[in-house]
Specification:
alpha/beta, Aspartate Aminotransferase, domain 1, Aspartate Aminotransferase, domain 2, seven-stranded mixed β-sheet, three-stranded antiparallel β-sheet, 12 strands
């Protein structure tokens, strides 16, 4: 149930009372049965379209499980899981993030994955009178959430180098409530320069927010936007452990932003979702954050496997978009992405889908060296 202050604020922003009831149901305290009313795309996961496939390089998952220190920490805490918080695991996690990112602990909020805070950011800053601006193509959850809310959505094509066109995004809706930037971008794996993000923050309308989704940043190994949080800028930086940390099934993520923004995001259910964090997930995440050598080694492994696949595609004369993450976009030119997905599937290799703006381009996730070798072998048959 939304409190009166939150409900009044949302009504002022153009929501109807019926929409408020739906939002309260989605984020409501203890509303387990009501989750059936939540948009399907906001759930923790969807069934694999080809569960029998031997090679699954379609969902941007990591090819292996948690880092060794993380797995050991998760296993060790199981014996203490009869307690709600036997060793202040949440506090230990916050301190680990603060040490790695240089952000105060009260500027950090952990969540069970990153989908929940992303949806909350759209609910908080968008409304029927203040829209959302995203890139096209990009991760679609923010846009789908806004569509569900009845908030206007502007989708702006990427630049020629496949970064977010921040000036065009601002021009598309100079009064938007939220500007969403995914960098490295999903599905392209391309980086938007930090100076472009800073420009957007400096020029956006008052009261709006810039959300920077850095789910794939560890695969790129580039400077991140967390320093903007410490500088007090109007930005939410979002991370997940579902990618390089190999914890997709453990549902763990966090955001970094100003404390008052965290409070706004939590007001729909009193922060219950942020507090509902399984102890093994917390312990695994905390131990993994500081394993910098292992993170770098996993990144190098990904780069080598990606290089194998890109070189093989190049031998066939097939165009590939530039990428700095664990995915790449293949332009089949004369064949549709759906046709090629079926051709790979017939060989028990499941590649990713396409986006409406690019119907001949498929997203392929980088798997292990063995998986990418299987991709190359399947390509030799599929491309004939």
């Amino acid at each position: 149930m939304l409190d009166d202050e939150t409900a009044d604020d949302m009504l002022r922003r153009g929501y109807s009372r019926r929409q408020l009831a739906g939002i309260a149901t989605v984020f409501g305290i203890g509303a387990v049965s009501a989750m059936s009313g939540r948009p399907a795309w906001a759930s923790a996961g969807t069934p694999d379209p080809a569960p029998a496939a031997k090679v699954r390089i379609n969902a941007n998952e990591c090819w292996t499980g948690p880092l060794t220190p993380g797995a050991a920490a998760a296993a060790a805490i199981i014996a203490s899981s009869n307690r709600y918080a036997p060793h202040d695991e949440r506090g230990e996690f916050l301190r680990a993030v603060a040490m790695v990112e240089g952000v105060p602990t009260d500027h950090i909020a952990p969540w069970p994955g990153s989908s929940d805070p992303l949806c909350r950011a759209v609910v908080t800053f968008c409304s029927p009178t203040r829209g959302l601006v995203t890139a096209d193509p990009t991760f679609e959850l923010a846009g789908r959430t806004a569509d569900w809310l009845g908030a206007p959505v502007k989708r702006v094509p990427l630049t020629r180098d496949f970064s977010h066109d921040v000036r065009a995004m601002l021009a598309a809706d100079p009064a938007a409530g939220l500007y969403y930037i995914c960098t490295p971008n999903n599905p392209t794996g391309t980086i938007t320069p930090l100076e472009d993000i800073e420009w957007l923050i400096a020029n956006k309308p008052p009261g709006s927010m810039v959300l920077v989704d850095e789910a794939y940043t560890h695969f790129a190994g580039v400077p991140t936007a967390s320093y903007m949080v410490s500088a007090g800028k109007s930005v939410i930086v979002m991370r997940t452990f579902s990618k390089i940390f190999g914890m997709a099934g453990m549902r763990m993520g966090y955001i970094m932003t100003q404390p008052e923004i965290i409070a706004k995001l939590m007001r729909y259910d009193g922060g219950m979702q942020s507090g509902a964090l399984p102890l093994p997930s917390l312990a695994c995440a905390t131990a993994s954050l500081t394993a910098s050598d292992l993170i770098a080694a996993r990144r190098k492994e990904m780069q080598e496997a990606r290089g194998l696949a890109l070189d093989h595609l190049k031998k066939h004369g097939i165009a590939v978009l530039p990428t700095q993450a664990n995915m790449f976009m293949v332009d089949w030119k004369t064949k549709s992405a759906k046709e090629m997905q079926s051709a790979f599937r017939s060989q028990s290799v499941e590649i990713g889908r396409s986006w409406p703006i690019w119907p001949t381009i498929s997203r392929v996730t980088v798997g292990s060296m063995a998986e990418m070798s299987a991709f190359c072998a399947a390509l030799d048959t599929a491309w004939t």
